Amino acid sequence: MSLLDDAKAVRVHAHAPYSGFKVGAAIRSASGAVFTGVNVENAAYPEGTCAEAGAIAAMVAAGETRIAEVAVVGDAPEPVTPCGGCRQKLAEFAPPGTQVTMANLQGDERVMTIEALLPHAFAKAQMEG
Ligand code: THU
Asked: For 116, which DSSP code?
């Protein structure tokens, strides 16, 4: 089963009663473990969280802080791209060169590196004077 298959499998559990747009994300960490997440919307709309954020939280809670690969999927005309905030969240743990696979349910796929998705990302090094 590919990482994208993991993202597709978890996507069905998304809680998206407001947008109706279910997203699944899967992260393979440096150890090879896979962590998944879904978007979890809330009646107080800004409190909702993205699928990528859920997968990152699961990875960090398991004691891992290095992303090796990412997959994101939703039911859209084009492969679903991570939102701006999620690009920053992923960049915190994904070194340059990390591949992010974006997909839809029709089988369209796009693969980009994290630095192509978020050029000139703000990072810890910039706070080190
Ligand atoms: N969403 C994600 O979970 N990840 C993305 O990268 C794009 C957007 C969710 C947030 C919200 O629940 C729904 O998709 C519509 O924006």
From this structure: H
Residues with CB under 6 A from ligand 1: 16, 19, 21, 23, 39, 41, 48, 50-52, 72, 82-83, 86
> Taking the domains of the chain in order of start, what are their residue ranges?
3-127
Q: What is the pLDDT along the chain (129 residues), one digit of tens a residue?
A: 899 999 999 999 999 999 999 999 999 999 999 999 999 999 999 999 999 999 999 999 999 999 999 999 999 999 999 999 999 999 999 999 999 999 999 999 999 999 999 999 999 999 997
- Angle in degrees, CA 58, 60, 63, rounded to 5: 115
Element containing residue 69 per DSSP (H, E): strand 67-74
Catalytic choice (52, 64, 92, 128): 52
| pTM, 2 dp | 0.97
- In CATH terms, 3-127 corresponds, of 3.40.140.10, 3.60.20.30, 3.30.70.1350, 3.10.580.10, to 3.40.140.10
